[in-house]
Predict the 3D structure of the following.
Amino acid sequence: MLAPVHIPVLVEETIGALAVQPGGRYIDCTLGGGGHAAAILERSSPGGQLLGIDADPEAIKIARSRLEAYGGSTLLINENFVNLQAICYKYDFLPVHGILFDLGLSSLQLNGNGRGFSFQHDAPLDMRLNPNQELTAADIVNTYSEVDLARLIKTYGEEGYNRRIARRIVQERPVKTTLQLARMIKQVIGSRRRRIHPATKTFQALRIVVNQELEHLESALKQAVSLLGFEGRLVVISYHSLEDRIVKQFMQREAKDCICPPGTPTCVCEHTASLRLVKRRVITPSLAEVQINPRSHSARLRVAERIIAQDEHYKIVERLCSTAEVKANGWRRPILLEKLREVFLAA
Ligand SMILES: C[S@@+](CC[C@H](N)C(=O)[O-])C[C@H]1O[C@@H](n2cnc3c(N)ncnc32)[C@H](O)[C@@H]1O
């Protein structure tokens, strides 16, 4: 039987958003099957380098064989992207030209790899990206109180029937498998919801909690900015509104020089913008892409570019201007910007 493949989403848009260039240095924080990574390596050749990270050891194995041809240009690490900064310092991989997060799960994980991510296949209720982690979905459904379960399903699944589902889970415990849980939820919700499977939102909620997905995303975004060189790009593809809200709010906040609450007479936050929004609107797949790859339908891509604070910028330009080289050549703004890039992206 052929192994399931993951079709990468918004590939051309991602390469464009990352502004991939030959010789560039990139991080793929969610390596998966290596589809985006292969495209980045292709376009950054010659001389491009890619650090690929995935919390799932299986994903690393698959990506390693897919990216074999790029050999020395890749460094693939089985880690959680919540440790992004530490990984980059450990492997001396910074500053970088672009960082990609393609959130969620790959088809390889959803297509029944026995880890319980999907209600389409029967498997133990596990849902851990990293099998070495302790907490599983079964621990949650079988030990949390009814109130906590309802709250979790509401908060992370945005599920309106959260209380009924939680009550049913508690009545039927122990709940051991994906199909057992999916069947119970279907019985609770009945045919009221037709567009998506009744268990979709509850499964999403459990997966988010098991893997601390939202907390890790918030932390990793902050770390990513600090690793980007001048004009380096941050690109995030998300698949549900909770993730997308975090990404949108983060980029909007980081694109502002002041984040004091509205009405504050004088600025007290001392915040300075670190990003520029490259596109204000979210990028979504074309109809043609959704037809070929239905899983892409909920994808939302956001992109921002690293800027440096005005005073930092002036200081560097001043320093450059005072060099004999600049004086002798009478270099102007475009050349100085080029020099700035060199300073920030020095290997
Ligand atoms: C949608 S897939 C990425 C697919 C990939 N872009 C490709 O082209 O094949 C998401 C991947 O991110 C990984 N992942 C999710 N959260 C993670 C985290 N916090 N740290 C590291 N990897 C994570 C998952 O294990 C999964 O393999």
Remarks:
- Residues 213-227 form the longest helix (15 residues).
